[in-house]
Amino acid sequence: MAILHPLPAQNEHSAPKWDSKYEEQLPTFFEEFETVAKAAGIDANDAEMKKGVLRYANPESMRFWRTLPTFKEVAKTWVKFKKEVLSHYPGALEVAEVTTEDLKKVVSEFAKSGISNSKELSTYHRKFSIVADSLQEHGILSGVQVTSFYVQAFPDSIRIRLDTHLQVSFPKKVKGQAYSLTKLHEAIDFLLSDAEGDDFYVAKELSSIRGLNALIGECAVHCVADSSCSIVAMSDATSNTLGLSFDLKRRIPLQSANGKMDWTLGVAKDLPFWFGDIISFLQVHIVDSPAYDVLLGHPFEILTQARIQNFLSSDQHYTLTDPNTDKVVMIPTIPQELPWFRKEDGRDRRNQQVE
Question: Domain of life of the organism in this record (predicted)?
């Protein structure tokens, strides 16, 4: 049997308190009263609830609340009385007015100052969440839009790895469904702690690497696999031939095999690659005139759970798994070929090799 406690006296520490100068605190005052009322066992008695709350109000408020019809009429419930009281205090019903501009300011502030560790990330997460939650609650922004704003505070080196990390961590997520801010916070915190710098290695000249063919749309494309590469890359000639669109703002610095620094042209998101009977959606960086059509870096191996089997004959087989269906395919590699697509006179053409 629950032990009941009498309502605390007005001067007791546990007594609900409210200063009428701060109307916005009135809902909290009512919540505190309902807590002590439940402990006293009167929460189911509307008359006792209405009478009991008066002992914690200041004299002016107490006299006014007694004049309200919902207080005088015995049949009126505590909920209706509370609602009527609140209606007379506009400040108690006000919601902090925030706009998407307020959210952009938070993002811009941290994008400018930089987020490099867990402490800075937590500060950003708290400030962002306060504004974003209000915008979502009032239907101003959707979950997907909030997610899009959230990641804009981070450099491309984090955002590109974030795409892959989330796909690996949540392979069954419905496409188009937003990740929660909690999941984004956890993923970015992991990436910050595991960061090894902002530069990615991409070889522009490849040797002794075998290839495999993939289908992008209705077009067959020759790919070379290189697990030492941190990204999936595609030549701009191949991209143009396939008619791909990509985000020009998502550029990252590259370090080629000879140590030269360069930049990607942008990134094509969620590009579907068919390897036999399985499909993999990859984030593909567009590179100016490399020695390949497509370079499948480490993210490809992670997303397809690739296993490589080498033979004494120098043959090599890839065993790939679709994480959504668990379907498994085995694909034999083929010798690396010259790029099928190239720039010529400002146009991209299929490279016709002369036998």
Answer: Eukaryota
